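#struct-help
A.M.: can someone run this one for me? Single chain, 193 residues.
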Amino acid sequence: MSNLLTVLCNLIPLAGMMWLGWGAFNLLAMYWFENWVVMLFTLCGVAILYKRGAVRIAPREVSNVYAFYGVGGLMSGLLLFFGAPLFFGVPYDFWREPHMIWGVVGLSVSHAYVFLDDLSVGHPDRRRKSPGAIVNRAMKRVPPFVFAMVVGVLGFAALGSPWLGVVVLAVLKTAFEVRLLTPPVPPLDPAAK
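D.P.: on it. Structure tokens below:
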């Protein structure tokens, strides 16, 4: 269910590009806000699982989330919201367009579902994920986000936000998220044969 929801929610920015004229900066602004949502859900999930008596979480893991998402978010935000208008002539308020909220809300819905799934809300028979697993999944999002910021802002913006390039970026991001949420298939037990 989470994979289907992830794909559907990631179609919202693509629809915005097709019908509302969003470009690379609009898409990257949504992804920037989405990363703050991921950080919030990650830290809330860790706190709730810790409070429920889950395995102790190392303070270093939580500080890594703050460091990577906080510092990375600040640096990429400066590039996106101040560097883009200065160097690429984008209006300073490009991210304040009223319809942009639907992209941010849509992308946040899929992360809210994953958050509830991690806590096994409504699934008493399922094992909850450990705080460490939730932190590790969030940390795996950092390198693709940095790549998207560099390629998207510096590459696509310099080329005038080519529609195909931005779509490819959005599709790769969606595929990465689906892969990140898909649990690994356990190896076959040779004794079961």
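A.M.: thanks! The radius of gyration is 18 Å.
D.P.: also worth noting: The chain has a mean pLDDT of 75.
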